[in-house]
Amino acid sequence: MPKDVALEAHVTAPRSVRDLQKYYQKLPTEFIPSTPQILDLHVLNSQIIDSSLKFAETISLETLAEVYGQFLGQDVDVSTLEAVNVYEHRFLPGLRILPSLLPIPVQETLLSKLLLRDLSNKEHLTNVHLHYNVPYPDADESFFDLPKSTTFPPKDPDVHKPLGVVDVLEKKLRWMTLGGQYDWTAKEYPDGPPVQFPKDIRDLVHGIFPTIEPEAAICNTYSPGDTLSTHRDVSEEADKDLISISIGCDALFLISLSPESPDEQASIPPTTPAPTPQQPRRQSKNKGKEPPPPPPPLDEHTLIIRIRSGDAVVMGGQSRWAWHGVPKVIGDTCPEELTQWPNSNRDDDNKIDWTGWMRRKRVNLNIRQMYETN
Ligand SMILES: O=C(O)CCC(=O)C(=O)O
Ligand SMILES: [Fe+2]
Questions:
Q1: Phi first, then psi: what are they for 216, rounded to 5°?
Q2: I need a surface site. Which of 79, 86, 216, 304 has the fewest CB within 10 A?
Q3: Is the ipTM here above 0.90?
Q4: Pocket around ligand 1: residues whose beta carbon is below 6 Å from it?
Q5: Does residue 278 form part of some domain?
């Protein structure tokens, strides 16, 4: 599908999609497993496969072994790999879901390349650069090696206070850009040649998804409580597949191709019914225990899915321009093998032992091809 020139980066999502985002953002974690509207690929049953998903293909184990072997720099025995199934959605054309695409060692190496290597490259901007002067680590060191006392001075001290390195890595760092440096304020890529996309990550992604040439990526970092509001990624010139790879804690991912309907406002019930005299609102100390109101209706062109570490979502075809967002990151769900990353295990009073950082994080790598020419 050629890109529709009417797609605008600044438009907001239809009301129904924003209502869903709000509902799932507020849904207490303990109610997620009993909410049948949330597609969980770990409990895929034949009914789900018949009604919304269809099996499309399997990625060959030989391809996976070769691509992972090259990425890890060591031979990968085919017999150690699990088959990767690709599912398509019947009513979101071009959406493909690949549960458990990346094995743990590949996830771990990808994390290290992104956060220990690429974050230290001054060409890769982050949200922190918008308001702070960033003190870089020495060559061959990473931000996780910065001394405890490191501060990030604000560009405008009247507006922002200096930030400590713990604040930055625990909370403030929300994204880094690779390759073409997307400008989030102008919502466009700057003119001029893009920054070189990291070759090993390009080979990993291109090896599995040969129809795309990775030219730009956003590496999002989330903690439980963080959300990504509903948006469309419409700034790329090419209508090639967008590949989204997740590592760490689980998340809810919302995607919709539903059109805005004029009577939408009237047809969607309010997400939080007003309390009645018989049913007074509980005190805030009990918040979260109360059963949630029923979810807003989901039409067949809308999907809310629980994404796990190692899963990939491909947004191609019509779904390339779909509204999507991340209403929730689910704490305490990082795979045990990754929880200790970056395994710094230090015994140095001036430095921080970041071991366990990943237990509280979700990292999403969102890869795009910017130009049609490749
Ligand atoms: O974190 C995710 O799963 C989605 C990220 C996303 O949509 C984006 O970076 O544009
Ligand atoms: Fe996106």
A1: -150, 150
A2: 79
A3: yes
A4: 218, 220, 228, 233, 244, 246, 253, 324, 326, 364, 366
A5: no
